[in-house]
Design brief:
The complex is a heterodimer of chains A (290) and B (384).
Chain A (H helix, E strand, L loop, with lengths): L2 H32 L6 H19 L6 H24 L4 H23 L14 E4 L2 E4 H23 L1 H11 L1 H6 L4 H23 L11 H14 L4 H21 L5 H15 L11
Antiparallel strand pairs in A: 1-2
Helix pairs in contact in A: 1-5, 1-8, 1-9, 1-10, 2-3, 2-4, 2-8, 2-9, 3-8, 5-6, 5-8, 6-8, 9-10, 10-11
Chain B lengths: L1 H6 L10 E7 L6 H20 L8 E7 L4 H14 L5 E3 L3 H14 L3 E3 L15 E3 L4 H13 L6 E7 L2 H16 L3 E8 L7 H10 L3 E5 L2 H14 L5 E4 L23 E4 L10 H12 L5 H20 L4 H9 L3 E3 L2 E3 L12 E6 L2 E6 L19
Parallel strand pairs in B: 1-2, 1-3, 3-4, 4-5, 6-7, 6-8, 8-9
Antiparallel strand pairs in B: 10-13, 11-12, 13-14
Helix pairs in contact in B: 2-10, 3-4, 5-6, 7-8, 10-11
The chains are: A mainly alpha (290), B alpha/beta (384).
């Protein structure tokens, strides 16, 4: 396999990995602050894809602006579902949380299926066929655009969590929920906002994935699993770790596909997952939280 | 529910109609084909009921949506036979799901007519309850090779396939056929459908520089594969395929691969322009119902119900055994061609090779059925 092919695969891996990173960051944020594995993550990603789709098809909103509305919608949904559902199981066993988020996932997936049917949906826009070449490297315009927006937002979210007062509250809760309450942080409000922010993040990813892909009600399933892998690799709740893990996963997938064939991509992915879990359970990238 | 039905005499929930079971994928990744099934069946029901139905009763179809999952398809058979008491089942859509239900119908001793499953292993069990009206993967590979031999006789081929029963069966058939015909197989790539990115795999294929690529793909993947073939500059002289995604009505439209579908070759089992009587009428009726022209998957569903109704009428019985025996004796002219089953339950159906030209499927092979000569495939860089 030539140098150019390898370089192209790494490039494609980074472009794809950036979206994985965003999906994983959303999950890591939620996990870090709430110790909750959100099994509805992929379903919400799908919801964001449909929101962007409807905006584009019905209201002719540009495909690179729709994600803003999708993120806002998911933020709202996140806060509401925290208030009315998740808060009730926050102190209960992990099993209850798994059941609740899985249930949410089913409701969202089947709800969308009821409204839109099971048809896959794709948006078409002129830019799809636009590509640039640098040397023998090939850049498909929609992928580059999605990547650029993703990169900016990923950095913004990271800075927000690390620098802002709200972010400090998040991290305080991640470290110790009870102590955070004692020093005057409104834990429930912060957690509600964190869940909203986590979903908004995956909403952005969904909105930016739509122009590259197609959507159907079950499209999210594979991303829930990927997000889970990313959170574990990234160090259970570390946002920066999740971002790096997402990129690594994208590059690993592409290189595996190039050198061994596509059917090995998932095998390698989960092999790494298992090895990391057993050898370095705190994740590849340190144990720093949120 | 069950108890109540049993008390009323153990009959069907609605005894005024003749119930036939259908297992297909109305939801999930194969839904586009399941919907084609559904519309094809609907045209057949309307037509048959207008002629008086079967055994003096109108036909009612009991659909079970397998959600594109094999385990659900098996549950569908149990539900249709044990609760709805249907004496015959049609389906499933995909090869994967069909293979899953073959043991189930055999065990429950209910005849199954397979409309669309191409993998040849769905017929391997030699179950006396299983009949297939479509041609299989071996026939696909043989027709493709025959076509290539007579059109430039290329020497190298790459096979790219989705990694479930449909793709695996087609790669097996093509591997054997290509080897026997003296072609060198330079790459064999399996992929998981439902990935947004096949570029790395396509690069692997491109680096092997094949004259022919043979794809076995469903619709979602077929569209992405063609778009990304352009991106990685995969330029074989012939893009050929085992039908399905590459033969779906949506594929050459903007809902599918659009202009990237142009010049691709595909196996087809039937087209609206087919020579068999009734093809045009089916095309019209389907188009009126569905708003788009049918691909062969819809026709196969339609024809399977015609075959079922014919057998039930000849059997003069609503018992599975009698119906299965009647299906075995089938000699029916349909718009899908003449249908008769050999001792393995397989209908001998001829296949065609089509090419997308100007966004339309045109038959280019075999020579006696060709609508138009084939157009050589230009490199991506030379297209506008």
């Amino acid at each position: 396999m030539g140098v150019w092919s390898t370089a192209q695969a790494v490039l494609d891996g980074v472009l794809l990995g950036a979206l994985y990173a965003l999906v994983g960051m959303g999950m890591a944020l939620i996990f870090g602050v709430m110790r909750l594995v959100n099994f509805a993550h992929g379903a919400f990603l799908m919801l964001a894809m449909y929101a962007t789709y409807v905006l584009f098809e019905r209201l002719h909103v540009n495909q690179y602006l729709g994600f803003i509305a999708a993120a806002a919608l998911l933020f709202g949904l996140g806060v509401v579902s925290y208030r009315f559902l998740l808060r009730r199981v926050a102190e209960r066993s992990d099993f209850m949380q798994i059941l609740l988020t899985l249930g949410l996932s089913l409701i969202v997936t089947d709800g969308v299926q009821l409204i839109f049917g099971a048809d896959y949906r794709q948006i078409n826009f002129p830019l799809m066929s636009t590509s640039w070449r640098i040397g023998r490297l090939h850049f498909n315009a929609p992928w580059v655009l999605s990547f650029a927006i993703t990169a900016v937002l990923a950095v913004a979210i990271y800075l927000f969590v690390m620098r802002s007062r709200f972010g400090r509250a998040l991290r305080a809760i991640a470290q110790n929920r009870y102590a955070a309450g004692l020093v005057g942080i409104d834990v429930q409000r912060t957690q509600a906002l964190a869940f909203g922010l986590g979903l908004a993040t995956v909403g952005v990813a969904g909105g930016l994935l739509l122009p590259l892909f197609y959507t159907y009600p079950a499209v999210g399933e594979q991303y829930t699993l990927k997000a889970f892998v990313i959170v574990v690799l990234g160090g259970m709740g570390s946002i920066a770790g999740a971002a790096i893990a997402g990129l690594v996963l994208g590059v690993v997938e592409e290189l595996t596909s190039l050198f061994w064939g596509n059917q090995w991509a998932l095998v390698v992915e989960f092999a790494i997952f298992l090895v990391v879990l057993s050898v370095r359970p705190s994740g590849l990238f340190g144990s720093q939280r949120a | 529910m069950l108890g109540a039905a049993a008390c009323k005499g153990g009959g069907k929930p609605d005894a005024s109609a003749f119930h036939i079971g259908v297992v297909t994928s109305l939801t999930g990744p194969s839904a586009a084909f399941g919907q084609a099934h559904k519309n094809g069946f609907a045209v057949a029901v309307a037509e048959l009921n207008a002629r008086g139905g079967v055994l003096g009763k109108p036909i009612a179809l009991d659909f079970y949506d397998d959600q594109s999952k094999p385990d659900q398809a098996v549950q569908g058979v149990a539900k249709l036979v044990d609760q709805d008491h249907v004496p015959i089942i049609l389906g499933a859509y995909s090869s994967e799901n069909t293979r899953a239900i073959v043991p189930a119908v055999t065990q429950k001793q209910v005849p199954l007519i397979i409309p669309t499953a191409v993998a040849d292993n769905v017929m391997e069990s030699k179950s006396p309850w299983v009949f297939r009206i479509c041609a299989g993967a071996d026939a696909y590979a043989a027709a493709t090779i025959d076509f290539l031999k007579h059109n430039g006789d290329p020497k190298t081929i790459a096979i790219v396939y989705e990694n479930t029963n449909f793709g695996q069966s087609n790669v097996k058939s093509m591997h054997a056929a290509a080897t026997a015909a003296g072609l060198t197989i330079v790459a064999e790539e399996a992929y998981q459908a439902s990935s947004p990115d096949y570029k790395a795999m396509l690069q692997r294929v491109a680096s092997a520089n094949p004259e022919v690529v043979y794809f076995a793909s469903y619709l979602l993947d077929a569209s992405t594969l063609m778009r990304q073939s352009e991106q990685v500059g995969l330029n074989p002289k012939f893009v050929t395929s085992a039908g399905t995604g590459f033969a779906a009505a949506e594929f050459p439209t903007e809902k599918g691969a659009g202009k990237f579908a142009e010049y691709t070759f595909s196996i087809s089992q039937w087209l609206p322009s087919a020579k068999w009587a009734g093809s045009t009428q089916f095309d019209d009726a389907f188009t009126k119902l569905a708003g788009s022209h049918p691909a062969y998957h819809a026709m196969e569903a339609y024809a399977s119900l015609l075959v079922a109704a014919d057998a039930i009428n000849r059997a003069k019985s609503d018992q599975p055994k009698a119906i299965a025996d009647a299906i075995r004796q089938t000699k029916l002219e349909t718009p899908f061609g003449p249908v008769a089953f050999d001792d393995k339950g397989q209908n001998a159906h001829p296949v065609l090779v089509t090419q997308v030209q100007g966004g339309q499927y045109k038959v280019v092979w075999p020579a006696d059925a060709a609508e138009t000569p084939l157009v050589a495939t230009p490199a991506w860089a030379d297209r506008k």
